[in-house]
Amino acid sequence: MQDFGKLFRENNIIFVTLALCLVFFLISPRFLSVDNMSAISRQIVPIGLIALGQFFVVVSGNIDLSMGMGSVLFAIVLGVIFGVTGGVALGIVAVIVFSLAFGFVNGLLVAKLKLPSFIVTLAGLFIAQGLSGLIIPRGQQIFLMGGFFRFVGAEKYFGFYASFLFLVALFALAYVVYNHTRWGAYVIAIGNSEENAKLAGINVDRVKIGIFMFSALCSGFAGVILSSRMGFVQPGLDGNGLLLDGIAAIIIGGTLILGGRGTVTGAFWGLLFIGVTNNALNLLNVTDVWHQVFKGSIILAALGANYVLWQSRQAEAQ
Amino acid sequence: MKNRIDMKGIDKSFFATRALNNVDFSCVSGEVHALVGLNGAGKSTLMKVLGGVISRDSGTIEVNGTPVEINSPADASAQGISMIHQEYSLINELTVAGNIFLGRELRKSGPFLDKKEMARQVKEQLDRFGLDLDPYKPIRELNSGEKQIVEIIRALMSDSWLIVMDEPTSALSEEDKGRLFEFIRRMKAEGISIIYISHHMPEIFGIAEQVTVMRDGQIVLSERTAETTEDAVIATMTGTELENFVKPHKEILGEVLVNVAGLTKNEAYQDISFDVHRGEILVLTGLRGCGAPELAKAIFGLDGDYNGTITYRGAALKPGRGPAVAVSDGMGLVTENRDKNGILPQLSVRDNIALPFLEKSVKAGVLDGRAIEKVVTKAIADTSTKTSSPNQEIRFLSGGNKQKICFSRWLDPDLEFLILLEPTRGIDVHAKADIYRIIEDLAERGVGILILSYEIDEVIMLADRVITLYQGQSVSEFTYPNFDKDQMLADIAGVGQPH
Ligand SMILES: Nc1ncnc2c1ncn2[C@@H]1O[C@H](COP(=O)(O)OP(=O)(O)OP(=O)(O)O)[C@@H](O)[C@H]1O
Ligand SMILES: [Mg+2]
């Protein structure tokens, strides 16, 4: 029993999320149906990819605002290449190259010119948004059809969507990188004190550029998966909503917004929290306006509960 | 083979400040080379140039006669040079082992860290240092003495042939200092060379072969320690004879200002009771972990989680009432960890000094600039702080000068009770005497003073009364003139016979 208590305190966000699930289940038993669980697992994939990219960026003491609209832009790159040449592989390669280049520029400006990441990536956000509209005028779309997109959007293995399995694999990889390689330690070090990281002989600029490239790559994946699921690309997608959900997920999962601290598992649970909330509010037919209000309130309540749990843990430690 | 390093004609200016002026400095392996000078003389700057932390304006660095490029800490460590910095340089969120191996991690096959092996090696060194610490513990949970030892072990484990130690003993207890010196002797025997910066002459004459004195960015003396004396070194440092501080002892007649009764906080300290009278200097001393800094926090109202009572000016204090109330009640505190909670690095020297007075300096809703200016000018002069102007950002001051600012901000006429944690940490011999004088003046004026000091000579020089602590318990009390140094040392080490 004591062990259970300990578990409870160390994994606050898990219990807050499970409690939320219980509440939704009591309101609408359909919430816990296999179909709905499966739907949630698919809905969270793009948010999760964005969250994963932001995780490293935020732990390093930065923020990347460009990657919500970035994923819309990268999807459009895919759509255009596919539309013109009909080549899927070429389109994917283009997305990877283009997103890495975008992230490289973000990282370069932040690392070498010492510009605040907030400003650099805010500019990136506008540019991505503008370019998207330039390439495909609003109201128009390019359809993505064929086996690959159906596979990415809807294929299941052992009852799980392929895209969800991909997300889980990426989180697992991130977990290993963050906890068991030099790179993870360097990200934490930079987030704590760039100065001290430099004193330890770390090539801070290179790590930072890498972080922004990874974030952009994740966002490229998010764009591909999101548009495959929908079957078309268009510039009107709510990329910024995606970004905010991603950031909310990692913060709820215990990542310090000021940088220097966070866990990958926490981020994953934060993601489930956001996913569950989004889904339940849809399921319960909450109208759009109220949806936002409820979501905000639930996030606040979760943070409050988290804080109370954290305090009881502090008291225990005394 | 003997290694040597030669720095030739090094210049470095920070805007108008000429920090290094055509400096030549050499060092050979298997020796301890002491580098001394007053606060702001340029010692840290010279070593930061050597360590690749800052770039020089001109000059060359040669290793074994060949010029080398050292433009980053990584370059320096590739040349076999590592540093213990004067400023805190650890990463709070990483573990002890993670910090010690940061930048040169051990790996298993592939990219994976070999955490077990790193922890094992760190544990071995910690044991040699007599420090019972879990290598997997995050740094943020360590106290300042433990952190300092981690910084030292990090440098020792770096496989360098030259280790620069910029005031490594400043956060250490006597016991740990002894261990450090033992390590230094062992390394010396292995052919490792050490550049040792300190303000403590006995330390220097105890371990160094060569001593180099800097003054105003230049080298003014470099000699074998065997062929010079402490007094001669101090004289070249200051350019004048040092007036020794001698405490004018008097009888303490003031009323009781602070009364602490049965103060207990589980691990940190147990059943501590004492009085501080107006005009009295009470010094607490002990080893690392003796509980004194935690006690000070309770009295200042930073920590309310204790049992027992604290009475101030005849009224019981509310536990954890916060520093704002403490300051308006006429209390002041100089913390032991100036980088973490002593200064606001982005602000100017003026703002850092004026901070606690801002509330009082408001006239008709606006700050009274002239009143502040007066306080600031006086504070800088009283502590002979070296700064290019009051507008200088404090983070650009030398380490000792930062400490003086932390101190000078409390020289306020309304002050009634001052708590000083290691008040002269990192302060040069000259300024030390100044600070002792200021403390004495405050006491003269009727201010009650509580000091934590780990330096036994300082304890004896300053105190009217001494309480020794061992692992959170008070062991013994000494009243002037009955200061028995050997007994004190025995008591703080926990080996004192009852007396
Ligand atoms: N980054 C900087 N910007 C501006 N001035 C600086 C900077 N670093 C050092 N200085 C100035 O250079 C001078 C030498 O400083 P340095 O830190 O080398 O002194 P120090 O001998 O190490 O003194 P201490 O004993 O107090 O540590 C001081 O006047 C200091 O204010
Ligand atoms: Mg210095």
From TrEMBL, chain A:
<feature type="transmembrane region" description="Helical">
    <location>
        <begin position="242"/>
        <end position="269"/>
    </location>
</feature>
<dbReference type="Pfam" id="PF02653">
    <property type="entry name" value="BPD_transp_2"/>
</dbReference>
<protein>
    <submittedName>
        <fullName>Ribose transport system permease protein</fullName>
    </submittedName>
</protein>
<dbReference type="GO" id="GO:0022857">
    <property type="term" value="F:transmembrane transporter activity"/>
</dbReference>
<feature type="transmembrane region" description="Helical">
    <location>
        <begin position="44"/>
        <end position="65"/>
    </location>
</feature>
<feature type="transmembrane region" description="Helical">
    <location>
        <begin position="157"/>
        <end position="178"/>
    </location>
</feature>
<dbReference type="InterPro" id="IPR001851">
    <property type="entry name" value="ABC_transp_permease"/>
</dbReference>
<feature type="transmembrane region" description="Helical">
    <location>
        <begin position="117"/>
        <end position="136"/>
    </location>
</feature>
<feature type="transmembrane region" description="Helical">
    <location>
        <begin position="12"/>
        <end position="32"/>
    </location>
</feature>
<feature type="transmembrane region" description="Helical">
    <location>
        <begin position="209"/>
        <end position="230"/>
    </location>
</feature>
<keyword id="KW-1133">Transmembrane helix</keyword>
<keyword id="KW-0812">Transmembrane</keyword>
<dbReference type="GO" id="GO:0005886">
    <property type="term" value="C:plasma membrane"/>
</dbReference>
<keyword id="KW-0472">Membrane</keyword>
<keyword id="KW-1003">Cell membrane</keyword>
<feature type="transmembrane region" description="Helical">
    <location>
        <begin position="289"/>
        <end position="310"/>
    </location>
</feature>
<feature type="transmembrane region" description="Helical">
    <location>
        <begin position="72"/>
        <end position="105"/>
    </location>
</feature>
TrEMBL record, chain B:
<dbReference type="InterPro" id="IPR003593">
    <property type="entry name" value="AAA+_ATPase"/>
</dbReference>
<keyword id="KW-0067">ATP-binding</keyword>
<dbReference type="InterPro" id="IPR027417">
    <property type="entry name" value="P-loop_NTPase"/>
</dbReference>
<dbReference type="GO" id="GO:0005886">
    <property type="term" value="C:plasma membrane"/>
</dbReference>
<keyword id="KW-0813">Transport</keyword>
<keyword id="KW-0547">Nucleotide-binding</keyword>
<dbReference type="GO" id="GO:0016887">
    <property type="term" value="F:ATP hydrolysis activity"/>
</dbReference>
<dbReference type="Pfam" id="PF00005">
    <property type="entry name" value="ABC_tran"/>
</dbReference>
<dbReference type="InterPro" id="IPR003439">
    <property type="entry name" value="ABC_transporter-like_ATP-bd"/>
</dbReference>
<protein>
    <submittedName>
        <fullName>Ribose transport system ATP-binding protein</fullName>
    </submittedName>
</protein>
<dbReference type="InterPro" id="IPR017871">
    <property type="entry name" value="ABC_transporter-like_CS"/>
</dbReference>
<keyword id="KW-1003">Cell membrane</keyword>
<dbReference type="InterPro" id="IPR050107">
    <property type="entry name" value="ABC_carbohydrate_import_ATPase"/>
</dbReference>
<dbReference type="GO" id="GO:0005524">
    <property type="term" value="F:ATP binding"/>
</dbReference>
<keyword id="KW-0472">Membrane</keyword>
<feature type="domain" description="ABC transporter">
    <location>
        <begin position="5"/>
        <end position="241"/>
    </location>
</feature>
<keyword id="KW-0762">Sugar transport</keyword>
<keyword id="KW-0677">Repeat</keyword>
<feature type="domain" description="ABC transporter">
    <location>
        <begin position="240"/>
        <end position="496"/>
    </location>
</feature>
<keyword id="KW-1278">Translocase</keyword>
